[in-house]
Amino acid sequence: MKFCSGFFALLLLFFVLVSSAAQAQDHPKGWSDKAKGAAIGGGGGAIVGGLLGGGKGALIGAGAGVVAGGLVGRNRDKKYHPARYNHYVNNPKKRVPVPVHHYVHR
Per-residue pLDDT tens for 51-60? Predict the structure, then answer.
């Protein structure tokens, strides 16, 4: 009798864990192209600014790189990942229509 109740408890736990893992995700996971662009642009701008202008140049280059990389990444999100772009755009007029086949989360 103990074996049967223990087996049933493990089986129930298994189904609860499997069903919670199979639910649809609310938002895409990982870094967006906007975040990647800002990080890469900031790093590259800091290196180039540091080589050309020292410490102050590194700060200016990092700031310019973050802004430029973020803008490029935002445009990539808008073009290639409209669901992710719509997730961080607050203005409903600026939202991009999401094709059904275009964005598939894996």
Answer: 999 889 999 9
- Hunting for tokens 């964005």 — which residue is that? 103
Quickly tell me which residue has 């990539």 as its tokens: 76
**C-alpha span between 19 and 60 (Å, rounded):** 50
Q: Map the chain to HEC letters.
A: CHHHHHHHHHHHHHHHHHHHHCCCCCCCCCCCHHHHHHHHHHHHHHHHHHHHHHHHHHHHHHHHHHHHHHHHHHHHHHHHCHHHHHHHCCCHHHCCCCCCCCCCCC
Kindly report, residue by residue over 57-103, the tens digit of the pLDDT: 999 999 999 999 999 999 998 998 888 888 878 778 778 887 766 55
